[in-house]
Design a protein that fits this description.
By secondary structure, the chain is mainly alpha-helical. Helix content is 76%, strand content 0%.
């Protein structure tokens, strides 16, 4: 894919920039919900699903669980700890959000979520460039870790 070490090092730096930015954005999105008071976010969000054909208990659970997931996933991706698992968890979270957003018929928010999906896909495709991270420090990168550990990194 790369002709020389210079372009590969540039790609690795670019990957770290995207990973750090996405991880920080995800972490701060979750943290902001807690700083502002979880109910300031949860109550209007739950009310927005009043006319949506989803069980109320499921909506309430999801609305309160999503900020926790954003916080944890953001930390994993930001620090590059079990990066592969963090990115896959991000993809699952995005699928959940896209499902809810589509049920709510909030097409403007869906467009933004699809942008996040593209970033998640880029992060997953570039995992081999993931060098500046906790995974590398602990020897958990897929290229250097034992097979039993590498599948989670």
């Amino acid at each position: 894919m790369f002709n020389d070490s210079f372009s590969k090092s540039n790609a690795a730096v670019a990957y770290v920039i995207v990973r750090l930015s996405f991880g920080l954005a995800m972490f701060m999105h979750g943290l902001a919900r807690f700083i502002a008071g979880i109910d300031k976010y949860a109550k209007p969000t739950i009310a927005g699903f009043d006319n949506v054909a989803l069980p109320h208990a499921l909506v309430v659970f999801a609305v309160y669980a999503i900020p926790c997931a954003e916080l944890l996933i953001g930390l994993f991706v930001l620090f590059g700890f079990l990066t592969r698992m963090g990115i896959l968890a991000s993809a699952l979270l995005m699928l959940l959000l896209i499902f809810g957003t589509s049920m709510e018929q909030n097409w403007a928010a869906l467009a933004i979520q699809l942008t996040y999906v593209l970033i998640v896909a880029v992060l997953y495709l570039g995992l081999d460039l993931n060098g500046f991270c906790v995974d590398s420090y602990l020897g958990l990168n897929r290229s250097t870790a034992p097979q039993s550990v590498a599948r989670f990194a």
